[in-house]
Amino acid sequence: MLLAQARDHLTYALQPIVNVHTGSVYGYEALLRGVETLGIPNILSLFDLAQALGCSRELDRTLRALALERFAEVPGSARHKLFFNLDPHLIEEEDPETTVELLRQHGLTPDAICLELSEHVDLTANPAVARAISAYRSHRFHFAIDDFGTGYAGLRLLYEHPPDLLKIDRFFISGMPEDHRKRHFVTNMVQLAHVMGIQVIAEGIETETELLACREVGCDLVQGYLIAYPQTHIESLHTRYDRVAEIHANNRRDTPSDVALIERCLERIPPLHASDNISRLFDAFRLDKTHNIIPVLDSADRPIGLIHETDMKEYIYSHYGRDLIVNRSFGRALQHFVKPCPTIDIHDSADRFLEAFSASANPAGLIVTLDGRYHGFVSTMALLQLIEEKNLAAARDQNPLTKLPGNNTIHEYLSRTLSLRSEKWHLVYLDFDNFKAFNDHYGFRRGDRVILMFAEAMRQHLNSGRWFVGHIGGDDFFAAIGNADLDQVIEQVQGLVTKFRSDVQSLYDPEERAQGYLNARDRFGQKRQIPLIRCSGAILEIQPGDDYGSGDELGRIIATMKSQAKRSTSGLTLRQHRQGQTKTLPDSTWHETGAENAIDSDSKKENHRRPVTDIA
Fold first, then answer.
1. Which residue windows are coiled coil (predicted)?
2. Kind and range of the H or E element at 442?
3. Which of 86, 143, 274, 292 is deepest in the core (most CB within 10 A)?
4. Percentages helix, strand, coil for the chain, rounded to the nearest 5?
5. Crossing angle for the helix pair 180-195 and 350-358, to the nearest 10 degrees
6. pTM (2 decimals)?
């Protein structure tokens, strides 16, 4: 009776799981609907009732058939994956042949399904569970651990039964952009998964900031209401959700992509499919004398791994060996010779490519995917070339005088900083007062010595390893540090400007140094007393959750702060965003000599150099 009602009243909704970069659909999760029409309050009660009636196994098969029937209605379903939750109480009795037969009825292969293991029931240390998973894997079924991080056996399950995919529970995703601890948890989960060659799905994405944060920490796939609600109408499903790409395109904090750089290092090695006859493997190695590896894909062009020529030598170079392996009765297929290989998306950064390579044991290179499909291969030598080009690009951006990172690198750093809204940051903008008069009076060579002196002082005083320092151009500099104590930041910046204020006097002639000023013309051509050079600075504290939008507001705030700093005795101002006020910091141990009251018109002007919004 229950089974008949289940077939008549229950159905499945499908929720898309998409690529975090492009919104292209990777698969759909099957979510049961209609339980309440049976007079049963929830899904767990349905399973409890089936167990009491002794028909749990039959109900599970019925539900699996309904899910596959619904999935098969999706256009191009064979190119995607169906995510189906296994009943943890029945996993010991799992028989993959039953599911294989259901798939065959719809023209699908095991590549088209991913079975989800729940973390809420202990599946570890049970030989029957291990045997069931092994049996499924022998048929090329994929597995995912669901709701990772909220159960009590997650790490052990991850260790004993490494999945193909890891689904991070909504608990950690909700509020992650603002929650520093959640961000660290998710970052470390992603890194652990990637080290093990596992892709990561972030569940429950509901806001744009959550999507951006998931991409930032390295999640591969996402699902949630932001992308699409579960759909019972197949016509409402799409193969790509353009909103994902649009959100990234509209994110002004996004850093420049390495895609063009990676494409240049990519090799288009012709792949084989796991279903191909093994004789095609011999032909592939015979025809391609350049490569000693062949990528192997599943039926949907998703990478499985590599076959290495060295592993086939005993068959390739032996007449009887080749005849033996080609013989169908020998029972060896391509998948028996496939070795795992790190797989990475074309949209990931060059740094992420290096991390993936370093995390694997003696890899031949990296398989590169586009929307989850095979796109090419990056060999070890090509990866070294990629990193070298990346480093050269960074070197080209260095300021030619100080060798500090230039505007592009500063822009990338600032974009990442503004996107990490769960962390505290201190941004410091520095420039010189009275520099133009010095440069005009002594010439640009001595002016360059001033700039070099300050750059070296920055390296010495902001050298904890956590500081980022850059040279915007001319006498404008930038520094930043994350998660540091405010008093420590103020102390280090004060030490920098005080030391520079003292050291720069050595670049004046003795007469000007003794009198404490220059007799020089200001920018209006009027001759007057110009004070000695000092450095002014604006320190901006950004607390978790602070949002500066596109950076325009940040630029306006910094310009005002720098103007106030130039008019102050100490030359330093501080603004804590949530207090909304800029205050002048007290003077340090420095005491001016000479013309204390002489005021350079440069110190009154607003930021007259490159607008801060150009780098914000």
1. none
2. helix 435-442
3. 86
4. 45, 20, 35
5. 60
6. 0.71
